[in-house]
């Protein structure tokens, strides 16, 4: 009896095997080619967990990372700009001819390799907020090719054709660019998509956001208003439009005189005032106006509800007015009830926290809640709306409060920190999160550890720095009395002009 087999043994089909192997090799080659194309397109831009900063030393500019390590030696005459602090794209200006205004540009990565070399110019698009703090469009770079401008993203992908004679930012407005083509202006977004066609003699922001709309100028020299879809909000019939608006009302100028108009052009107010300063949030409340240098409130019917008697008047929250009398500021409601007496040199409103920060003549602060009660006093060191805390210096101690004015331990605020500033017998040291002394109490002053792990230490009038483990990496040798903020990255210290966000070594 023959023994049966459980399965048939088949011979390999060598032709099919070879075909499969060849197909597999071709697939791998395609993947490598695509990967190479993508790598080339991205010009070896790295996305890292580090941040990058411009630095200034010996009158030259360079780049460091957030560990304090040098990325590009300070060797450039002009400041190196960094569009996105998380990505290693550094834009340099060199060979500047200050007489003619001509200059050259180039882009470098963290290996000091030149990237985006196919363009004649590579430049950041700078902007600034209402406090003159400079910032850059993070993911958009202006480039020039064949004499015309376009934009690329931070990885090097081209987002527009090279059609434009100019590309600039709009003050305070993010991700929106003003472009010029054939002597006409329009708007594009950071992805290169058209917002408003290039059809106007000029275009400028009406407010602080894209949604507020834009003032446009026609070839005839008349002004109107359009929204971000290029829909007309106010016909272009006016010699000037003032950047004051609200409740579908606008302030225009004709023959040098301000007039309050509806969006259909109907005139509402044109007499009884010298200037309109603000359209109030509640349309029934009307406007803030001036007469002979004094501020008051008038309804849109012309009825005066608050006579012009104040040195300043401004609505800082719906129905709450900052008022100035005898050189001092207070808070008042629409019925003229003084909620906070005018005893302060300044008052600002923090909307997210619903708090008022009132400053006294000695530069200390009262922190006032939404019900106009003084909840804490001291020198305001920091107010972080994202983390939801206030840092105050009170009786030479630094204390922390949430927006409900509950005192918090520093470890509850800085949850990722390894060191925490502490004071004992008039001297500062550092503790770990469990309260153990890491750095003995020996310093005259200190800062909290920043997000990069560094903390400032002061002794005998000089500043130094410790790292996240408590190691002194710079003995106190820096004289920083003229500096507005004490902040270190490694041995580098934040520059005097904090709006520029650069670091230096003294």
What report would you give on this structure?
By secondary structure, the chain is mainly beta. It has a domain at 417-506. Helices cover 7% and strands 50% of the residues. It contains two helices and 48 strands. The strands form twelve sheets. Strands 32-33-34-35-36-37-38 form a seven-stranded antiparallel sheet. β26 and β27 form a beta hairpin. It starts with 13 loop residues before the first helix and ends with a strand. 31% of the residues are buried.
Computed structural class: mainly beta
Helix percentage range: under 10%
- Describe the largest sheet: 7 strands, antiparallel
* Total helical elements: 2
Compute the CA-based radius of gyration.
30 Å
Q: What does the overall shape look like?
A: flat
Task: Say how many strands there are.
Answer: 48
End-to-end Cα distance, whole Å, is 99 Å
Sequence stretches where pLDDT stays below 50 over 5 or more residues: 1-43
Largest sheet: spatial strand order:
32-33-34-35-36-37-38
Q: How much of the sequence is in beta strands?
A: over 45%
Give the mean pLDDT.
90
């Amino acid at each position: 009896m023959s023994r049966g087999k459980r399965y048939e043994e088949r011979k390999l089909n060598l032709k099919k095997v070879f075909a499969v192997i060849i197909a597999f090799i071709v697939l791998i080659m395609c993947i490598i080619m695509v990967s190479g194309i993508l790598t080339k397109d991205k010009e070896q831009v790295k996305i890292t967990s580090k941040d990058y900063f411009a630095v200034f030393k010996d009158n030259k500019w360079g780049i460091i990372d957030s560990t304090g390590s040098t990325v590009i030696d300070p060797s450039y005459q002009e400041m190196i700009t960094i569009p996105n602090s998380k990505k290693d794209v550094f834009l340099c200006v060199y060979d500047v001819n200050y007489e003619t205004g001509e200059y050259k540009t180039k882009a470098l990565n963290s290996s000091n390799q030149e990237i985006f070399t196919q363009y004649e110019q590579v430049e950041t698009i700078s902007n600034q907020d209402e406090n003159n703090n400079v910032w850059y469009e993070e993911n958009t770079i202006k480039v020039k090719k064949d004499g015309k401008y376009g934009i690329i993203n931070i990885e090097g992908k081209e987002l527009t054709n090279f059609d434009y004679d100019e590309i600039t930012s709009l003050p305070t407005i993010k991700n929106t660019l003003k472009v010029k083509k054939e002597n006409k202006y329009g708007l594009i977004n950071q992805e290169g998509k058209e917002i408003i066609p290039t059809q106007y003699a000029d275009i400028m922001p009406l407010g602080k956001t894209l949604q507020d709309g834009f003032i446009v100028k026609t070839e005839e020299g008349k002004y109107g208003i359009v929204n971000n879809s290029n829909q007309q909000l106010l016909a272009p019939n006016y010699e000037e439009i003032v950047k004051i608006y609200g409740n579908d009302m606008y302030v225009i100028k004709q023959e040098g005189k301000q007039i309050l108009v509806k969006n259909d052009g109907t005139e509402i107010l044109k007499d009884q005032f010298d200037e309109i300063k603000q359209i109030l949030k509640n349309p029934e409340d009307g406007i803030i106006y001036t007469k002979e240098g004094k501020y008051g409130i008038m309804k849109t019917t012309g009825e005066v509800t608050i006579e012009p008697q104040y040195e300043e008047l401004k609505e800082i929250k719906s129905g709450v007015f900052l008022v100035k009398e005898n050189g001092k500021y207070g808070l008042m409601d629409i019925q003229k009830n003084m909620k906070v007496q005018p005893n302060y040199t300044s008052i600002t409103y923090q909307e997210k926290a619903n708090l008022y920060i009132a400053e006294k003549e000695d530069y200390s602060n009262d922190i006032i809640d939404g019900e106009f009660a003084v909840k804490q006093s001291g020198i305001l060191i920091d107010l972080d709306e994202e983390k939801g805390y206030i840092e105050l210096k009170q009786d030479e101690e630094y204390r922390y409060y949430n927006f409900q004015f509950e005192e918090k331990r520093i470890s509850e605020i800085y949850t990722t920190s390894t060191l925490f500033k502490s004071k004992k017998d008039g001297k500062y040291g550092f503790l770990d999160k469990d309260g153990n002394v890491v750095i003995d109490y020996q310093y005259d002053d200190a800062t909290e550890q920043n997000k990069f792990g560094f903390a400032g230490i002061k002794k005998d009038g000089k500043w130094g720095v410790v790292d996240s483990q408590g190691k002194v990496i710079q003995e106190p040798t820096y004289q920083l009395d003229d500096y507005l903020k004490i902040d270190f990255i490694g041995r580098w210290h934040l520059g005097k002009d904090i709006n520029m966000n650069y670091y230096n070594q003294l």
